[in-house]
Amino acid sequence: MGTLTGRVTGVNGNLTKVSFQGSVRKNEVGYVIVDDKRLKGEVIRIANGEASMQIYEMSDGIKVGDPVEFTGELMSVELGPGLLTQVYDGLQNPLPDLAKQCGFFLERGVYLNPIPDRSWDFTPAVKVGDRVMAGDTIGTVPEGVFTHQIMVPFITKGEWTVKSIKEKGNYNVRDTVCVIGNDKGEEKALSMVFSHPIKQAVKCYDERLRPDEPLVTKIRCIDAFLPVAKGGTFCVPGPFGAGKTVLQHLEAKNSEADIVIVAACGERAGEVVEVLTEFPELEDPKTGRSLMERTIIICNTSSMPVAAREASCYTAVTLAEYYRQMGLDVLLLADSTSRWAQAMREMSGRLEEIPGEEAFPAYLESTIAAFYERAGKVRLKDGRNASITIGGTVSPAGGNFEEPVTQATLKVVGAFHGLSRERSDARKYPAIHPMDSWSKYEGVVDKARVEEARAILHRSNEVGQMMKVVGEEGTSSEDYIIYQKGELLDAVYLQQNSFDPIDAVCPPERQQIEFDRLYDALMTAYDLSDKKEIRAFFNQLRQEFLDWHATYFETPEFRAQEKKITDFYMTKAVK
Amino acid sequence: MQKVYTEIRSIIGNVITVRAEGIRIGDLALVGDSYASVIKLDKDIVSLQVFAGAQGVSTTDPVRFLGRPMMVSFSKNLLGRIFDGTGVPRDRGPALKENMIPIGGPSFNPSKRILPNKMIRTGIPMIDVFNTLVESQKLPIFSISGEPYNALLARIAMQAEVDVIVLGGMGLKYDDYLTFRDTLEKGGAMSHTVMFIHTASDPIVECTLVPDLSLAVAEQFALEGKRVLVLLTDMTNFADAQKEMAITMEQVPSNRGYPGDLYSCLASRYEKAVDIDGAGSITILGVTTMPGDDVTHPVPDNTGYITEGQYYLKGGHIEPFGSLSRLKQNVNGKTRDDHRALMDGMIKLYAQYKESLEKKSMGFLMTEWDDKLLKYGELFESKLMDLSVNIPLEQALDLGWEILAECFEPNETGLKTSLIRERWPKQEALG
Fold it and tell me: Which residue of A302, B115, B165, B247 pairs with B193 in a disulfide if CB–CB is 3.0 to 4.6 A?
């Protein structure tokens, strides 16, 4: 098949108009050839017989009349063994390899093979004559601790028959391992690598299920009060400096997912460097191997071309879907979806579309919804359950949650972890606002009791507000105790010290025990009347709980401290 | 060889259009004798942004395309020199033509960056002790107009231990420019300084080129292994210039008239800050004036999302609360063993002083503890916060201990006992 070519007729920023003859698909990939460089772009509109292409690179140097090659293929990523541990840009260019080839800078027009060129121990899972469909496993290779399934490409249509399959053995990732044919006499040679269009959700599963199982993050405030479910979605909006990225890194480190994909979308390069330096040193809580072995990083930092930023979120979610098809629980963390939305806004402006609120395009909401809807818990055809959980940060302008991106996101997510400047200024971390935030999922502790605890927090907050006006002396002892109970809950349960080796990671079993003890302490009526006495009592109780956090779980010290706490507050309990 | 076009078809704002073929986007051209760059191509219609402004441009003025993008000369000869926003000398020295490099080059590969880990000493306690500046950090000074931010920048330029200083001035008042020049000359820092200055009276387009010129030059020095400090003042003027240009080009504004790509515009400049694996580094210290002291204004807001903290200049000193250096943890663990603890302890006490001050102003009864805090607060403000204080880090830490000892008993400071035993100035008080 000869490639279709066109000619550049106009350039505006990274939007290029191209005249062509023949057939061009919307969203197909093309290359503008500038001198000896091939700049990748995507057709995003066809109007008046001309295709408008967004160029994923800096467009400097393009001139009218430059040739354009159309590939006939949609913007795709390559899927195959070896994706884990990689660091890609938004178009799946491996950055360390790029550095080897081009040095310090991201030279444009250089596209490297995303899947490492190496051999794998292949074990066939089908035999000649078997009937297969899209997403069916034809064999497996071991990738780190995972059994990586080699599958029939997800875009394959209809039923096919296996014509030949390689025996168990060591093959290069791009060797043909299987040939399949269909009733029409077509044949396809399959290697371990295939590609999939990034904007097409993978649907090779039996059924979508309700996300009903908590995804443990080991952050108390989230797991107990604002839980996230496997297959659910959550968003983390917050002003700058409130700790969005730190919170996401904690989630990436400690959550009990099989695979974690970090999409650094339009944020600081320094933060990616932190992940790159830190993760290989850390241990995966599930397998004990290096944390990097379960991680893929997609990094399109703020100074990289904007059009590729738009693609990077889709690249990340497509990789997530690929690993979900292997029966794994995948966590996708996107930081930040606002930058992604801004990339859409820039493109929309260049296309001279009619702007919506704050100049965001009218399709902002549906695009955000479609992205988050690619999360979900599914039952695969072989009966196993698997999931993709998506967590996105939002960077609202001025920290004001009323802006379009936050609002559009809140409509579609299952949990909202709103960060507050007040809490981060007061060094109360994680700075998730316990009252404004919400979650629709089940957590690790009993929901009814969490609600009772939350009610105390609400009452305590009201008393606190009132006290600002009438002072301590104008507050009754009963109210003052409620106030202190709320403060206690905040200080010893909602706040967590991520720098402390023990407190940073709180397993669900520990959370249950700690919550039970705290719940009991909160529900107990105390025989205290003097404010000074009340304050001293709660200060002491808080200290005891904090000391409890500093003991290792299920050691004698841990149990001794729990008993000490109980004994302490029972001395003042109303008999 | 060079074809001259003499039929300008339209002149709108600073943008002119002309019919021409074979022109590349981003190329430089001469319109009359002013530089211009190609910003849009539509068939044979070429739109050009005229750097010096289109005022007085005639429809028959000659347009010559130079066939290359905007470039700047890079060599050792730059040091000690002052240029304007298009790279033309301001200091009566010779124009530099050798070794031309393009500006606004590609982004740095994140996998070649290293974790910032070296402190930059400035001699200002509020920076060195409380919000340490780190090599390769990008940090703005948030300030309202009228604060001495340029004086602060000039002082940092004089005292910072770096190899090269690049100063980019945008929309500077002429006398501010003269002050910068004279201060650096007098202090002897001019010999390792390059200045790209756009003053308030210069054409607006040139303002938008200043950061790119400064950073292109800085990048080359850094690749040669130099530690470069880039000072940009004032980035709000840069953003306003972008706004003005976007609106004349009929782009849809997003927030308070600023273009939708303001974030990317600022980020692509600030992200040039880098610590290069195996070479030098670029540190960026910018000034962002906040119209009306409003931190939610689009320019400081977008800047805050990009940079690694901020210095908040208010009332003539760097505020301890609004200010934050996100990278200080990378370095302040290895300066001196008491650095972190003293920093936290002193700030916590200062926060309590603020509460006492509030209580006092509302007429509540002052306790003995309140009086101690009030004394502490005053000493803290006059001996450490004042911008004229100029002492090295170690001396500042010692001074911190002295202030604590003058105001408090050891157990009132909330500091670890072991540290107090080691550092408390009045050892006899420990018993």
Answer: B165
